[in-house]
Every structure is written in C-alpha cells, then in structure tokens.
Amino acid sequence: MRSLPASLRQMTDITSLAFLFIAFLTGIAGALQTPTLSLFLTTEVQTRPVLVGLFYTGSAIIGIIISQMIASYSDKSGDRKMLIIRCCLFGALGCILYAFNRNYFLLLTVGVVLSTFGSTATPQMFALAREHADKTGREAVMFSSILRAQISLAWVIGPPLAFALALGFGFKTMYLSAAIAFVLCSVVVWYTLPSMPKVKQQGSALIQAPRQNRQAVLLLFIVCSLMWTCNGMYIINMPLYLINELHLPEKLAGVMMGTAAGLEIPVMLIAGYYAQRLGKRKLMHYAIVAGLLFYIGLFFFTSPWELLLLQLLNAIFIGILAGIGMLYFQDLMPGQAGAATTLFTNTVRVGWIVAGSLAGSVAELWSFHAIFYIAAAMCLVSTICLLRIKIA
C-alpha cells in the first residue's frame, strides 16, 4: 500500500521534469526567432523601418485574436496537451516558411498566423502546468517561477546562437533550427505530459473574471502592456541602434539579450520565493523602478561594457514582470488558468502592437535612440496604474 504513493510521486517528478524541458524547448524556438526578426526584415526582406514596425503590430493583432480563441476553447473543453502539440507543429511550419520565403506580405499573413500558433504553445503549457500543480499539491508560485526560469535559460543561449547562425550560416539555417525545436517539443509533449480533458461547460459564466476583480484585472492588463511595450521597443530597436548609431558589432545585441536572460533566472527564483512574503504588487513596483532606471541609463551609457552592466536592471524589470505578472493574473482569475495565462500573454502582444507602431515611426522620423525617452515615460504611467490596484 505504501508503494503506490511513492510511485505516484516518482511519476509526478518525471512529469515536472518534462514540463521544465518543454519550457526550455519552446523558449529556444522563440529565442531563435525574435531577437533577429528586425534584422531579418531589414536585410533579407529589405523593408523600411516603418514596415518593420508594421510587421510587429500586425503579428501582435493576429496573435491576440488567435490566442484568445484558443484560450476560450481550452478553458471550456478540449485537451491542452493536444492543443500544445498542434501549436508546436504549426509553429514548425511557420519557421519553414520564414526559412524559404522572402515575400513581405506572405510572411505578414500566412507566416504570422503559423507563428502565432507556435507562440501560443507556451501559455497553454503554463496553464497545463498550473492545473498539474494544483492537482498534485505542488506550490504553484515556485513551480511556475522555475518554469519561467527555464525560458530565461533558453534566452541565455538563444539570442547569441541566433545571431551566430544568422550571420555565420544564414537565416535559413537559423529558422530551420527553430523548426526542429518545435518538432522535438511536440514529440516530448506527446510522450510525457498528462492529458487533462475538460468537461464541456454550459454558458459563459465560468470564463468571466470575478466581478470584484475586474477593475484590478483591467489595471494590471494596462500595467503589463505598458511594460511589455517598453521591452518590445527595446528589442526591435536595439540591434539597429547598435549598428547604425553606435557603430558597434552586430553580435553585441545577442550577447546583451543573453546576458539579461541569464540574470533573469535568479531574479525569477528570488521573486518567486518572496512573492508570498512581499506580495505580487510590491514586486511589480520594484520591476517598474528597475525598468525606469534601465531606460534612463541608456540615455547616457553607450560603451559595450556599460550596456552589459545595465542588463542587470533589465533583468529585474523583465524577470519580475514575466514571472510574477502571470501569477498575478491567475490569482485575480481563479479557476481560469487558461484565460488568465493567455490574458497575460496578450499583454505581451498588445505591447508589440504599440511597440511596433512607435519603434518604426520614431526611428524613421527621429532616431533609434529617441525611443528610450518614450519607454521611460511609459514606466511612469505604469507606476500610476499599479498604485490604483488594491489587491496585493
């Protein structure tokens, strides 16, 4: 009789390890594509900065529509495991299209749709992980923080590898590598993750946010969207800013992103440990302050070693936002893991909508450097909104 709980614990440990490996794989797939996208569009597709921004905006709008449809379906009925597999396979097809096609409008339509399915695998994986943690009695905050740290670990490796592959072997090799990561991820999901099919629910009441928390959810959505907008403008403009204005090596952008991702890992783990003690709202305040200092620092520091040192502030900004922000949504929307996680993910996409519009326009009208002033102002606005949230 005592061997059964032990075997269940062993199975749970294997499943948890599988979640960590899948988080790493999806992170690698994303980290191989996102950091070099603006450079890909500029050099391979040969588009103007404003069209680069339009591409990010269009991608985000399509992403919001598709991911919300998937989230609504996954919370009411369906098996998240099968959804994750399908999303990974569609993501692989998107990478193959990017590898062999250089038509801007085909990439903006078919390519973006396929890529959106690929990126939606991550929030569905986090939603399944939250349900798995609740079912097995694991501490959800720390488990989710460790999962998010795996994605940051992927971003330590991904951006430098992406620039090395793109500059050394070409973008085709880079995108095919991302496709392999998606396919491998789908195989691991099929053989290791648990199936938790939903019983179809009648009506829509179960997928609505609790009435008393709707204002807090709205304010948190605005805060996270503004913070992701700052990060999106930074990611879009940084490679072009380093090359065109500072005349620094192209590979430095990948090193900077990898450095920030590496520093995010201890930030996420520390934030997860102190979340219950300090409260998620206070941690989000710390993140915004770090972000404000980071973007102010970019006004003055331009040498490679100074830019690398600034990544500590960037890591605090993104590490807390990425780890605690998602859990904050889940706390405000109990019983809706898929909708809450996807709502948080859509703050990333809203951020890309605004970032794409601003980054391309500002770079074409003024300079790549001017975008950091806008980012600092957005940090101040997000602070005001966060102060109005009363639920810690």
From TrEMBL:
Fetch the PROSITE patterns from UniProt.
Answer: MFS
Gene Ontology process terms (BP): cellular response to glucose-phosphate stress; D-glucose transmembrane transport; lactose transport
Asked if the Swiss-Prot or TrEMBL record annotates the protein with the keyword Transmembrane helix, the reply is yes
Q: Where is the Major facilitator superfamily (MFS) profile domain?
A: 11-392
Naming one, the record's GO cellular component terms include: plasma membrane
Keywords per UniProt? Cell inner membrane, Cell membrane, Membrane, Sugar transport, Transmembrane, Transmembrane helix, Transport
Q: How does it sit in the membrane?
A: Multi-pass membrane protein
* Molecular-function GO terms, alphabetical: carbohydrate:proton symporter activity
UniProt lists the family membership as follows: Belongs to the major facilitator superfamily. Set transporter family.
Protein name per its UniProtKB record: Sugar efflux transporter
Specify the species: Limnobaculum eriocheiris
